[in-house]
Amino acid sequence: MTDPEDLEQQAAVTRLLLHYLDAPVAAYSRLRGVLPAPGAVRIAIRAGDDEHVMDLLYEIPYDTVAPYYVPGLLRTVLTGPQLYSSSDVGEVMGMTLIRLRPKEITPDPEPEQGRALTVVRALSDPGDDENPFLIGFWMHGEGLLRLYARRPDLPGVVGVDVRLTETPAIALIASLPTLVEDEQYHRPAPEDPHCDLLVDLTDW
């Protein structure tokens, strides 16, 4: 694997799947690894209960799907019966290798917690611990996430309400530090003692 774009895709999928080390990908299905392969990422899954387990290795080509959709693809193939041709099934390192065709699979939608994790992870920069932007979060209402942020130029905490959508709001996430300064979105926050100002971006 030497293609820089393949390396970026591999790293992105690895980051996306890290939290599944501590939570099931689907019922009775645990992440065991994210392995690089030529032109594809391979996801190792241990499926089954304590008495009946199977080690599976799902291969997903890089050029067919964005990293964000990989968890949804995995949930789809792990929660319902799937048919595979013999040419798409093999064995690698003691695991059953299954080559997926993402264009033929409808990914399960990301659960609310997963969508919140995408936003929170994008705003949590471990390299900026001395001057962090994101200092807290709260999932509230139907598909709403309140982010608690600092503005380096002003004291106090800003609450920022965003709507959790099916696909990540990349433009919104990237613009948040600037949008919290825009007074047209400012609202009082009398009911939330954890912030001094509320910024409503639910319709952005």
In short:
The protein is an alpha+beta fold. The chain has four helices and ten strands, in the order αβββαββαβββαββ.
How does this structure look, described?
- The strands form two sheets. A five-stranded mixed β-sheet has the order 1-2-3-5-4. It has a five-stranded mixed β-sheet with strand order 6-7-8-10-9, with helices on one face.
- It is elongated, with a radius of gyration of 20 Å.
- A hairpin with a 4-residue loop joins strand 2 and strand 3.
- The chain is built from four helices and ten strands, in the order αβββαββαβββαββ.
- 23% of the residues lie in helices and 31% in strands.
- The chain starts with a helix and ends with a strand.
- It is of the alpha+beta class.
Cα Rg: 20 Å
The largest beta-sheet arranges its strands as: 1-2-3-5-4
Mean pLDDT: 85
Order of SSEs: HEEEHEEHEEEHEE
Specify the biggest β-sheet: 5 strands, mixed
Secondary structure tally, helices: 4
Total strand segments: 10
Structural class: alpha+beta
Write out key terms for the chains shown.
elongated, five-stranded mixed beta sheet, 204 residues, alpha+beta
Map the helices and strands.
Blueprint: H1 4-17, E1 29-37, E2 40-48, E3 53-61, H2 70-79, E4 89-92, E5 95-99, H3 112-123, E6 134-140, E7 144-150, E8 157-163, H4 170-179, E9 186-187, E10 197-200
Parallel strand pairs: 3-5, 8-10
Antiparallel strand pairs: 1-2, 2-3, 4-5, 6-7, 7-8, 9-10
